[in-house]
Amino acid sequence: MIVSGSQQALEITARVLLDPGDPVWIEEPGYQLAQSVLLAAGCRIVPVPVDDEGINVSAGVNLLPKARAAFVTPSHQYPLGVTMSASRRLRLLDWARDNGAWVVEDDYDSAYRYDTPSVSSLQGIDSDARVIYIGTFSRVIFPSVRVSYIVIPRDLIERFMAVRFSLGMFPSYLFQEVLTDFIRAGRFARHIRRMRALYRERRTALVESVQNTCRDMLEIHGAGAGMHLTVTLPSGFNDAEIASQAAKYGLCLWPLSPCYMNKPRHGFVLGFAATPADQMAGAVHQLWRLLKKQPGKS
Questions:
Q1: Residue 55: strand pairing partners
Q2: Which residue ranges of the chain lie beneath pLDDT 50?
Q3: Could you give the percent of the chain with pLDDT greater than 70?
């Protein structure tokens, strides 16, 4: 099903699958807009911790085993950037099958992997039709292309159609036709290859700059894929205050702590796709100067 952006995909999926009061697992930390969609649907949100293998299914079972659904970003977890391990993927699918639950897979930027081969989607290994897969062109082409898609189990198609039409008949055919030509002519595949090389260069420049300049203050997470990485701060720093200070100098920092619902960890989600490699060192040095100016940190 073609929809107008991944946010609409999440909203349609929530309306089809969930009723007010339904408990839903979300990743902790996780995608704030997914939280907003679920809260608007009246769901009971159950934050499940993320570790180096992705969402901790055993922890979710201990917190609330009979959740109605789990919203996950397995290919490149947002915001920590980890890739869900194969054993954790199978454990999540087994949980969904055994409990009649749904898994909503938001695969927002899996096209860009730098250090490891591509990984299979949850939907691709699901043999019980429990996964709803959401993909988007907005991230891999440019944000104003509001074209995303949902891969839907066959027995849910009519319900998804009913909700989709209640929100508007269809996305712009113009964008769909242009994208179709772009893909069929082979230009989309070439675009991905070209941008993967460019983003790898920018990612590497950012990682090296952080390691050379801020090694004693910042720990890097999730640099192997996607268009962002995350850095975490030692205790005593306030990421929101630092981000506000950075904005005065034209430095855009996205604080990590709002991605948590419980016991936030402080740091920053650093996007590197739009910053040339030769500007990374200067931007990171500016961040380092801000960190050194924090009370008691000089």
A1: 50
A2: none
A3: 98
* 105: its two tokens: 């897979």
Q: Please report the pLDDT score of residue 70 as a whole number.
A: 97
Domain boundary among 150, 184, 218: 184
Same domain? For 159 and 26 the reply is: yes
Q: Phi/psi of residue 104, each to 5°?
A: -105, 115
- 179 and 204 in a single domain? The answer is no
CA neighbours within 13 Å on the CB side: how many for 126?
23
Domain-located, residue 37:
yes
Do 288 and 215 contact (CB within 8 A), yes or no?
no
Per-residue model confidence (pLDDT) at position 188: 93
On whether both 130 and 273 belong to a single domain, the answer is no
Query: Residues 257, 166: one domain?
Result: no
Based on the structure, what is the number of domains in the chain?
2
Distance, CA of 137 to CA of 218 (rounded, Å)? 32
| DSSP string across 10-78 | HHHHHHHH--TT-EEEEEES--HHHHHHHHHTT-EEEEEEEETTEE-HHHHHHH-TT-SEEEE--SS-T
pLDDT tens digits for range 22-36 = 999 999 999 998 999
The residue out of 131, 163, 184 marking a domain boundary is: 184
**Which pLDDT score is estimated for 142?**
80
Residue type, 297: K
Mean pLDDT of the chain: 92
